[in-house]
Amino acid sequence: MQTGNVLRGVGLMCIAIALFSCLDATAKYMASVLQLPVAQVTWLRFVSQFLLIVVAVGLVALPNLLRTRKPVHQSIRSLLMLGSPVLNFLALRHLRLDQTQTIYFLTPLVVALLAGPTLGEWVGWRRMLAILVGFIGILVVVRPGHVPFHPAMALAFGSMLCYVVFLLLTRYLAEYDTPQVTLFYSMLAGALLLTPFAIADWVWPPDALTWLLLFSMGFWGGVGHYLVILAYRQAPASTLAPFIYLGLITHTVAGFAVFGQLPDTWTLAGAAIVIASGIYLVHRERVVAMRRAKT
Fold this sequence. Notes:
This protein is an all-alpha fold.
């Protein structure tokens, strides 16, 4: 694989992570500051992403995006794509951006744990140990027994688990459908199923700026997910995986810029443990890949 392509993939991944931080910061502002209903905020995110796809491909080509070889798997994946942000936006009403992002850092570790029984990609004891160390890092952030356990932390964990299964299905569906079809199905369940809830709890946005921020979530999420797809076409997964931890920096910057929030010592310590375990996991995956290449 050419160095230029790898660097291009890394750049796309970094931009995507920054866009996801903008998405979370916007959602937190809408839900916690302006007190807009989570269903409405999430629905507008999916609808605006749908409009973005329509503009990108055109109405004539839109029916082609419905043609999938795995409709059941795409439907389940779409529901998980709905559940993950709903739980995340609910958690963001009570937690800081850096706290939810640190819990999200458990994602690559749980993916490695479940990849064996679901995809046949089993991990050795060293990588399993890295997964357990990562879980300890999450416990440092949550601090059970030291501070009251906020129910929003459970919501953040639920969001993370939805995203884990979402990623496993994404890897599975890559062999059957195009990235455009998968991206389209990503927002389909949210745009359809949240409509009655959004209408029932509708709160009219106070001004044009709020409308702009609401629709910007479709841009942050849609473009971010598409850039991730493009990045994985340019660079190996083992090269791109560590850059998910860039989210700690971008979420911290967004949290400070928008809400004046800085991570506490416990959050930084837990994040450092999770990052270290994740980097070691990537290292072990590279070692295993090199051994397989020699045999």
